[in-house]
């Protein structure tokens, strides 16, 4: 080696924090997994859009219209049959027999999915579903972002260039959050554009006079919430990665938790009353502005399962506290732990 | 004497299977500024642990350390720009190219991009700069690590076992590099368990065993002056008698004599005076290896089993690696 390098001195005080975040973002962008995550987001968004296109296609609508009309035509006979069966039951000794014939209502177009596709409603429906997918991709991206540094040992090299660990850790959290936002933004943008195209292409015959489905809330607010979830998921991936130091272990822990704790144990224990304190249930409450769960409610007369609700406010407060605690724990561990 | 690195009472223990063991035990180390300083000791003697503590990667249980007068790790940010280090094997992102890896590091410290090409050129990696790091040979990885340290133009370079796994040409290249850096006034702290390798390049050395300093100083001082000579003469029996009669302790060693004296000229003069003409006179200079073995033997470290230690009262939490 000749070692004929110039003596241009490096900065002795380090680069500004924004530049450090920029370096982390550059590394994130260079990673293959980032491109794979983007490709998966695009692919799965495309698949959900195709599903939406199929379910609102004119042929499908025509079949539903036919089915609806048949049901409407048969409805009086259904009521009559119900009343006859009820009468027979009463005649045969069961005086209190009530088949609920009075509650039978005429079928509505909405019950048959007969609504004119509207871009906003379609976007809301698809974004709500896809938000969880984008969040999971952002989470894996974040976990792998820090996991790769531990597995390759390059974190040690990095810290010999920038030893201020809180700066390093927070820059990684920010970059992963931004990466999660990027994946979600691409997916949600595609969803919005795709939903608009589907609504334009699948305009039903005006003669059918179908009602137009309207979104229940502001689409912008929903999309912002989906983005926030992706940002938090990316940062959560890094935070858990800092604690566990292995991408596979992080993903395994989260999937295992989802299946075992939220899927099985939470239902089996405490008769469903744990639901308001479970992260995924609160995530659902945040994204969908509330979430329903079934838990046992007891009165002096006995206990029975009842539908209950985790509110939107409960959801976001819970997630905010969980995120703050998680990030503080990750920063504290990252700051103090030996780097081997 | 200007000092690059100082440690006082540096101590690091690990908890393994419920027992706390010392990797570094109250180490007092002084590395003079400028030149090459060998940091010697057998595998597991605490060299890498010490270096990691200097770089803030490990937290010492107790003790203090300074680099260029800055207390580390507290003041490490103020001095890290003057320190380039390769700890154990080079570690970079395997799927990134050499240039990408260097660019990330370069941007983290704010060096101009042109510097990347300069250090790649200096380490003969420019033609392979856009190849993935995972495809590099060990020698190339080592050269990339050196290139990374040169991004900063550091005053102190720390090389931890830099020749591990290298072929003879690679070893020589690294050795020449260290020597060249030392000659340019940089401080090179090189740790190694291969004593002969460091002996060739180091100006000063510190020798540790079981995490404790055994000796430090200039290589020549540690080795001491030559006190024995290997002598080749035609008639070994008569030559031995002549030398012993002159009061020089002499032993036969195969086809040679081993004579204990500091004056080689006296040996040739005595033998020539008796018509015995010396065909070979070789000073038997002690090497670092024998000095190291002597030191470990004197301190009882060669035979004593590794003993558990009591936890230091000022020990920091979370010390496991």
TrEMBL record, chain A:
Taxon lineage: Bacteria, Bacillati, Actinomycetota, Actinomycetes, Micrococcales
TM region positions: 36-53, 131-152, 173-198, 218-243, 250-270, 315-334
Gene Ontology CC terms: plasma membrane
Coiled coil: none
Secretion signal, residue range per the UniProt entry: none
Highest taxon of source: Bacteria
Keywords: Membrane, Transmembrane, Transmembrane helix
Protein's name according to its UniProt entry: ABC transporter permease
The organism of origin for this protein: Intrasporangium chromatireducens Q5-1
Name of a matching Pfam family: ABC2_membrane_2
GO molecular function, one term: ABC-type transporter activity
TrEMBL record, chain B:
InterPro entries linked to this entry: AAA+_ATPase, ABC_transporter-like_ATP-bd, ABC_transporter-like_CS, P-loop_NTPase
Gene3D superfamilies: P-loop containing nucleotide triphosphate hydrolases
SMART domains on file: AAA
PROSITE patterns per UniProt: ABC_TRANSPORTER_1, ABC_TRANSPORTER_2
GO molecular function terms attached to this record: ATP binding; ATP hydrolysis activity
The keyword Ribonucleoprotein belongs to this UniProt entry's keyword annotation: no
Keyword Transport carried by entry: yes
Pfam annotation, one family: ABC_tran
ABC transporter domain sequence ranges: 5-235
Keyword set, alphabetical order: ATP-binding, Nucleotide-binding, Transport
Coiled coil location: none
Family: Belongs to the ABC transporter superfamily.
UniProt xrefs under PANTHER family: ABC TRANSPORTER, ATP-BINDING PROTEIN
Protein name (Swiss-Prot/TrEMBL): ABC transporter
